[in-house]
Structure formats: C-alpha cells, structure tokens
Amino acid sequence: MARRWPWCDRAEGVLVGIVAFLVGSILLSVTAQVLSRIVGVAFLVWTDEVTRIAVVWLTFLGSAVGVRRNAHFVIDMFVGALPPRAARVAQKGIWAAVTLVVLLLVWTGWQLSEIAMDRVYPITRVRQTWAFAAVPIGGVLMLLFLVEQLVAPPPKPSTQAGLKMA
Fold this sequence. Notes:
This protein has 166 residues and is an all-alpha fold. It has one domain (6-151). The protein has seven helices and no strands. It has helices at residues 6-39, 47-68, 76-80, 84-115, 129-132, 134-151, 159-165. Helix 1 packs antiparallel against helix 2 (47-68), helix 2 packs parallel to helix 6 (134-151) and helix 4 (84-115) packs antiparallel against helix 6. It starts with 5 loop residues before the first helix and ends with a helix. The relative contact order is 0.14. Mean pLDDT is 87; it is low at 159-166.
C-alpha cells in the first residue's frame, strides 16, 4: 500500500485551522448581531453579510477536510455485506460517484464566481465572487484529496477505533 502524501497532511492542518477561525468568526458576528438587536441599536448591519460569506467558506473547506478524512456520509452496511472483490468494486464506484459530484461542483462554482464578479454585497461592498469562489476552491481541494485516496488509500477504520472516539 502506498504512503499517504505528507503535503496533504499539512494542507489538512491548515484547513482545520481556517475552519476553526471561520467557526469562531461566525460565532462572534452572530453574537454581536443578536446583542445589537437586543439593545435596540442595529449598528452592526455588516454582520449578516460577513456571516453569510464565512458560512459558505466553512461549508466547502470543511467538506474538503471531510473528504480527506474519508468522513463523508456513507452507508457501509451494503458494501460490508458484499464479498471482498465486489466490495472493492463498489468502493471504486463510490469513489467515482463522489469524484463526479466534486467535478460538477468545481465547474458550476467557477461559473457562479464569474457571474458574481460584477455583483457586490450592499453593506460591505465586498464582491460576491469572494463568497462563490469557495465552491471551486473547496472542490479542487476535494479533488486533490480524492486523487490521494486513489493512489494511497487511507487505512481501513476499525469498529473498535470508532467506538473509542465516540
């Protein structure tokens, strides 16, 4: 079995840090928005747009981390019930389906980014393409991690290890 790529380990670490930052920024901006509404002074009108952009980036960068960790939603009960050879074929089919969906994300995300190039958010005046760019960027990261999984499959998780983490 081939060794996993060390640069993907580093990229995952950076992505986890960015995701943590985005979660914190969402928490702070939503809290500030709620508090300003309780006080009755809506002076923090920009928080809605900042939160919206952060949620989009969180979704697609977090999804890339999920692909790297092979943590996306699967129903392995069916694959596990198959004979070993059929299970390997099914796993490759699942990999191909996920890759196809991610390619579609990259393509449509790129198109959305181009469409949004001339549009700006009304309060922050940030170009909307900065939010939509999360889709193709996250998709490209997912593709890189999927290629890594094809070349160097991740170790099979054991049921006991999963139980210990829970």
